[in-house]
Task: inverse folding
């Protein structure tokens, strides 16, 4: 009798388990898949997701290998891996603000971010753990620790203590934010290597480029350009193509990653021209900017409207620096340096939307659409050591992908046309994404009353 009851219960449990698994199987049909493991487009594909993994990719002409509980029609759409913003800033200490920023990120197809520095009063380790909760509607989250510069890194002992702090807390990266005393910088690198924590950030502008190439990633293309300029007096000589190619070879040989952040630098030209500045403030996307951020970047005398930037020397220097960074970006890309996409979302670099601004800036600097998209997907996954599970669309990979209305390889601007996002096995259709964006707009409207 006991055996019979036990068998009946076991069968019931198996049936329930089967129903649960079946309910989590979703088929995306008629998708044009851009897998980003090669320069191809797989047309009219069925992508089957089971739980949070891609279980099958097969032509529509073939019968389904796995029966799905739900089918999503992707006819005419293009599927790409989820985008990675490798230079994200999360400001403030309010979890409600974080949730708003996540909605903007997801609506723009960004499924992973690297928080590039812990602001005072923040706990980015706690933030990271919150994003990992099963019910959290948030991208995959990586974080650097506190910003390191000459103010808080005065001696080699400070470097030792700071690396110990990073190891104990569990930060993913150590972020160098400014010039450090040479002995401190060398100690930081040695200690970080022993601790197994990658060092990333700004170049050491007062030292030869080779010193900065000891890091894992350089965060700004202008920081490379400034190594070959007069940083103290902001004198920027024009860079020649031969020099850019030589720099590119050196960087390629080092194996370092670079995140150009071209769009935030180029945006300074909008701030420094009165007519363009007036138009900048009226862009529809400013609706999603917090009142504090908007006021800080639109007030005369602050940030990019400061007296120095608006001076003749400042404006000329900015123009030349922009030209040099575009030349360097083109040279580094041609040399095969892995260039990642990072937005540095400050001011009018609106969180989420600035991802597409940055990709367009990289394309206009001379990179191919594939190379730009590769920097936002497969290369970023390898940089984060997630290439086994992320960065490309393939069987066994995590189900983090984006559906676009048109082919981004034809025009990189098509990455803006997000029609749905699959995040950690959760499908967010366009209506859901749009509702999130409207929620941000409503919250900002309340702030500005």
Result:
């Amino acid at each position: 009798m006991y055996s019979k009851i036990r068998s009946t219960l076991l069968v019931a449990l198996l049936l329930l388990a089967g129903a649960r698994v079946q309910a989590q199987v979703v088929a995306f049909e008629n998708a044009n898949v851009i897998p980003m493991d090669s320069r191809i487009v797989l047309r009219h594909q069925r992508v089957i997701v089971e739980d949070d993994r891609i279980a099958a990719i097969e032509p529509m002409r073939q019968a389904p290998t796995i029966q799905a509980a739900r089918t999503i029609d992707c006819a005419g759409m293009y599927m790409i891996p989820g985008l990675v913003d490798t230079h994200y800033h999360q400001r403030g200490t309010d979890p409600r603000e974080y949730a708003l920023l996540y909605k903007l990120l997801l609506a723009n197809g960004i499924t992973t971010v690297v928080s590039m520095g812990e602001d005072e009063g923040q706990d980015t380790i706690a933030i990271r753990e919150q994003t990992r909760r099963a019910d959290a509607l948030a991208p995959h989250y990586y974080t650097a620790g506190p910003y390191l510069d000459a103010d808080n890194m005065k001696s080699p002992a400070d470097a030792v203590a700071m690396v110990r702090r990073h190891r104990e807390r569990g930060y993913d990266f150590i972020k160098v934010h400014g010039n450090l005393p040479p002995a401190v910088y060398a100690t930081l690198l040695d200690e970080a290597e022993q601790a197994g924590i990658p060092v990333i950030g700004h170049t050491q502008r007062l030292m030869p480029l080779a010193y900065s190439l000891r890091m894992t990633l350089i965060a700004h293309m202008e920081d490379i350009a400034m190594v070959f300029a007069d940083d103290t007096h902001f004198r920027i000589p024009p860079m020649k193509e031969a020099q850019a190619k030589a720099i590119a070879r050196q960087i390629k040989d080092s194996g370092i990653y670079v995140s150009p952040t071209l769009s935030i630098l180029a945006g300074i030209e909008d701030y420094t021209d009165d007519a363009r500045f007036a138009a900048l403030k009226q862009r529809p996307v400013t609706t999603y900017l917090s009142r504090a951020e908007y006021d800080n970047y639109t007030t005369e005398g602050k940030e990019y409207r400061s007296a120095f930037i608006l001076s003749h020397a400042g404006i000329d220097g900015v123009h030349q620096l922009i030209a040099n960074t575009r030349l360097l970006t083109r040279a580094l890309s041609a040399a095969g340096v892995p260039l990642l996409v990072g937005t540095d979302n400050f001011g009018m670099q609106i969180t989420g939307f600035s991802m597409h601004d940055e990709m367009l800036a990289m394309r206009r600097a001379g990179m191919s659409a594939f190379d730009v998209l590769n920097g936002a997907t497969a290369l970023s996954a390898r940089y984060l050591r997630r290439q086994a599970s992320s960065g490309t669309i393939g069987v066994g990979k995590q189900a983090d992908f984006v559906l676009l209305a048109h082919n981004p390889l034809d025009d990189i601007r098509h990455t803006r046309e997000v029609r749905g996002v699959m995040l950690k096995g959760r499908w967010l259709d366009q209506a859901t994404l749009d509702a999130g964006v409207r929620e941000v707009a409503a919250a900002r409207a309340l702030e500005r009353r």
In short: The first strand starts at residue 25 and ends at 33.
